[in-house]
Amino acid sequence: MLSSVPSLAWADESLVEWAQRRVEQGLIKPLADRENGHFSRARPMPHERRARVLQATTLVDKSGRQFVPFAIDVRYGGEWQQNDIVGCVYRGSGNLFVKRGEQYRSAAFLLGKNTDPVAGVCEAAPPARS
């Protein structure tokens, strides 16, 4: 599930900073490393990628696990294209998931691993009724 980087937040690091760092280290850097020097008939590599954390607080899925949604924007020339990749990072584990079609998969999918969709991840549970 792409959790090779420790996921514990540093004491002086905000949730947004932690999530952004996790996406950069766990997805943006490995994507850039994988693309460097590879010829492919796929779309060209972006000149730059940036992670955006979409919410400053955690959401909770149906299993009670906390996650933070993110988006990765790409730049091929002068203009940024938003939401090239969307997904979420889980607070306790640091696991990254990305959306493909209507389903979420482990972010390892983007790095060439064959992963199955994972039901229920990155989907906020409805608020509890009082």
Describe this structure in words.
It is a single chain. The protein is of the alpha+beta class. It has a single domain (15-111), classed as Nuclear Transport Factor 2, Chain: A (Roll). 16% of the residues lie in helices and 29% in strands. Strands 1, 2, 3, 4, 5 and 6 form a 6-stranded antiparallel β-sheet that branches. The N and C termini lie far apart (35 Å). Mean pLDDT is 86; it is low at 1-10.
Q: What would you report as the Rg, rounded to the nearest angstrom?
A: 15 Å
Give the N-to-C terminal Cα separation: 35 Å
Approximate strand percentage: 25-35%
Number of strands: 6
The structural class is alpha+beta
Label the CATH architecture.
Roll
Overall mean pLDDT score? 86
Largest sheet: 6 strands, antiparallel
CATH topology: Nuclear Transport Factor 2, Chain: A
